[in-house]
Specification:
Layout: H1 16-24, H2 30-34, E1 40-42, E2 58-71, E3 77-83, E4 89-94, H3 99-104, E5 110-116, E6 118-119, E7 124-127, E8 130-133, E9 147-149, H4 158-174, H5 192-200, H6 208-212, H7 217-242, H8 254-262, H9 269-282, E10 289-294, H10 300-313, E11 317-321, H11 325-339, E12 346-349, H12 355-367, E13 372-375, E14 389-394, H13 402-409, E15 417-421, H14 428-434, E16 439-443, E17 454-459, H15 463-475, E18 479-483, H16 491-508, E19 514-517, H17 523-534, E20 540-543, E21 556-561, H18 569-576, E22 587-592, H19 598-609, H20 613-630, H21 645-648, H22 652-662, H23 667-677
Parallel strand pairs: 4-7, 10-15, 10-16, 11-13, 11-14, 12-13, 14-15, 17-22, 18-20, 18-21, 19-20, 21-22
Antiparallel strand pairs: 1-9, 2-3, 2-5, 3-4, 5-8, 6-7
Bound molecules: adenosine-5'-diphosphate and magnesium ion.
């Protein structure tokens, strides 16, 4: 007799090796086995007459053996001819068998077989079916419920898994497994016990199509519970953070007014709304953690600048961290344009500075002379000491891990306010579930006057035509990006491929200035090149994907992406966003190497059809799944037990409703829910 809390090793016949393998998939005790759900079912609940067999489907039949025949073909085969009372036939075919097995099959015996029905030359066939010799007294194959087929892990057999899970189901009958939802969803959903029993052994009248599509109420019951646990753990993180104390900002609008009046444009409503959200947060003595989302070119930078002004007016420091040197330099330039006229001092820190440059900057940061600090990963290295860091802004947050963000946060005396910005929008369902611990502002409108970028796809073999197009664009006074992609993870290989393209373009674009930029170049060289491109001294910039994010040169109106099939949707949209920033009509040419995979064709089609980052983000989620999109952000969303954000997004409303009920309950009820669904290693950063 087992209890659900018993470790799996207490199961007879389950040794240390199997224990290790099960532990690796998160199964430590019998209760965990209950949540290891079948991925499909076999129907052995009825015997199908031969005239009702369906080719390609599995069926259970009961027939009489007529004849056994061994074929002496190159590969030996055993054929067993069966018939029913109407002399209809079925042939069993075995490619592997032994003499004992052959001898057991005797003419006149009644046999039950379960397997997939195939078309043979003489009759319908089953290959290597599961079978029982009924007239020899072997157990009947007929079952009362559908038979589960479990996902396996290497070294564990289906039979073992079934046996162990059945033990857990036996223990479930006697246990009082806490049902976290009993009082919350009385009557409207099955109990946890019912749901688990149904999913392991559905009854014949349960809707298997629903189960196959994860739409059965028993699944919905578990999916909602799991998403709820996820949501709740994030909401608790949020509450915990909100209970910390940070420096209070008094909102003064002296500097903001000055900046506003110097701008050559009017803020969009969405930008103003975001600025108001941020100011509200800053005025509280609890740390802000706000996600600022907006499409490429929606103008997130200026919103960040206004946040910095609030810090400065309160004599606090603000830090802006960007994922690449090019982007950090670009921010230095952009922020300087806005802030220098207001007399604000900026420090700049990157990994490639020499020690005297670096020391000079470190000194400015430490003494507080620098009011704003801009940099790369170098910002959170040891040796960087802030005077009074109170606002941390992370640009393109998806390029950083949670830990990197937190290392910077830890440089502040009091928990700083944080603003994290995305490169492109995050799909709503993902944002609601993976970022429930963050508040969020969405810039859902582009500055007026932006012209949609026309996107075309051309085979790599049509370079000639592209070169002609480049000449035309440059002759009209506009500039061009040519992006070389290479999947290799080596920056030197990337540089080499870009060098080849650069040579080709130089040869074919006589009289134009074609310049190469790649990640292997020194930072001075890179920033000089970007500067020259910004100034219009360069016609065509040949680049690796180093220019992916943030770069802003409004006069560039043509983007060519070579081997675009190698990049994901979000990355392509992001790259394309480098053009279409000025008043000129822009074009993006996606060049590709044939043949394209179905997935690549879909990506290119989506980009041709839409310029809307919110639409593209949703498609990207469908194509790639949440794990790929969240990348370094380990949140547990990607490997849930039963829920799947993409498939189950339609349940999020209920999930949020129930989470709000749960957060009002006592802590032990909440712990019980979270413990059941979220393993400790996933929640380990909960306290940071
Ligand atoms: P992203 O959201 O991609 O980071 P940026 O902040 O780089 O976008 O802004 C893109 C461009 O739009 C910049 O040249 C910026 O000066 C300009 N811009 C920002 N806000 C507005 C606005 N309200 N009206 C017109 N142009 C704007
Ligand atoms: Mg940006």
């Amino acid at each position: 007799m087992h209890n659900l809390s018993d470790p799996i090793i207490s199961i007879n016949g389950l040794g240390p090796k199997a224990q290790e393998k099960l532990n690796a998939i998160g199964v430590y005790n019998l209760e965990h086995l209950l949540f290891h759900l079948p991925h499909r079912y076999q129907d052995k609940t009825r015997i199908t007459p031969l005239n009702q067999l369906q080719v390609g489907s599995e069926a259970l039949v009961e027939l009489t053996i007529d004849k056994i025949e061994e074929l002496a073909t190159r590969q030996r085969q055993l054929l067993c001819y069966l018939s029913d009372e109407n002399n209809r036939n079925l042939i069993l075919r075995f490619f592997h068998f032994n003499q004992y097995q052959k001898q057991q099959l005797v003419r006149g015996d009644i046999i039950q077989c379960f397997g997939e029905v195939k078309i043979g030359r003489e009759a319908l066939e089953m290959h290597h079916p599961e079978y029982r010799l009924i007239s020899k007294g072997q157990d009947n194959l007929l079952e009362k419920t559908l038979s589960p087929i479990y996902p396996l892990t290497a070294g564990i057999h289906q039979g073992q898994m079934k046996k162990w899970i059945n033990l857990a189901l036996e223990a479930l009958k006697r246990s009082d497994l806490v049902d976290n939802f009993e009082n919350l969803a009385k009557n409207s959903m099955p109990t946890l016990k019912q749901a688990l029993n149904t999913l392991h052994h559905p009854k014949v009248d349960d809707n298997i199509d629903q189960i196959a599509n994860f739409k059965h109420i028993s699944q919905q019951r578990l999916i909602i519970e799991e998403l709820c646990a996820q949501q709740l753990s994030l909401l608790r993180l949020k509450n915990e953070r909100k209970s910390k104390v940070s420096n209070i900002f008094t909102i003064k609008n002296q500097l903001s007014k000055q900046l506003l009046s110097s701008l050559s444009f009017k803020l969009t409503n969405a930008q103003q709304r975001s600025i108001d959200d941020i100011n509200n947060d800053l005025a509280s003595n609890h740390p802000m953690l706000r996600l600022l989302q907006g499409d490429v070119g929606s103008g997130k930078t200026i919103v960040a600048v206004f946040a910095c002004l609030q810090a400065i007016e309160n004599n606090f420091q603000a830090a802006i961290m960007a994922p690449t040197e090019i982007l950090a330099s670009q921010h230095l330039q952009g922020f300087s344009n806005y802030l220098k006229p207001l007399g604000i001092e900026i420090a700049f820190l990157t990994g490639s500075q020499n020690s005297s440059e670096k020391n000079e900057q470190l000194e400015k940061i430490k003494t507080g002379v620098a009011q704003v600090v801009i940099g790369t990963h170098a910002l959170f290295q040891e040796g960087v000491v802030f005077n009074e860091l109170s606002l941390v802004i992370i640009d393109e947050q998806h390029k950083f891990g949670v830990h990197q963000r937190l290392s910077l946060v830890q440089k502040a005396r009091n928990t700083p306010h944080q603003l994290v910005m995305t490169a492109t929008p995050i799909p709503r369902s993902l944002a609601m579930s993976a970022y429930a611990d963050l508040d969020s502002s969405i810039i859902d409108e582009l500055p007026p006057g932006r012209k949609p970028i026309k996107t075309v796809a051309l085979g790599n073999n049509r370079k000639d035509e592209v070169v002609e197009k480049i000449k035309k664009v440059c002759n009209e006074g506009n500039q061009v990006y040519w992006v070389c992609t290479l999947i290799e993870d080596s920056e030197s290989l990337r540089a080499e491929s870009a060098t080849n393209t650069h040579n080709y373009l130089q040869e074919n674009l006589d009289g134009f200035s074609v310049v190469l930029i790649h990640g292997r170049m020194g930072k001075d060289e890179k920033s000089q090149i970007m500067h020259n491109f910004s100034n219009g001294d360069i016609d065509v910039l040949v680049a690796t994907t180093v220019i992916e994010v943030g770069v802003n040169v409004p006069n560039a109106s043509l983007m060519v992406i070579e081997n675009s099939e190698r990049l994901g949707l979000a990355q392509l949209h992001q790259l394309r966003g480098r053009v279409g920033r000025g008043s000129d009509k822009s074009i993006c040419i996606l060049m590709y190497q044939s043949p394209l995979s179905a997935n690549a064709i879909q990506r290119i089609d989506i980009l041709r059809q839409s310029n809307d980052g919110f639409v593209i983000a949703n498609k990207d989620l469908e194509l790639r799944g949440p794990g790929e999109i969240l990348g370094t952000q380990q949140t547990g969303i990607a490997d849930m037990k039963i829920a799947n954000i993409v498939r189950d997004g339609y349940l999020l409303k209920q999930v949020i409703y129930y989470s709000e009920q749960f957060i009002k309950l006592n802590k032990s009820r909440q712990d019980a829910l979270i413990d059941r669904w979220i393993t400790n290693d996933k929640a380990q950063y909960a306290n940071t």
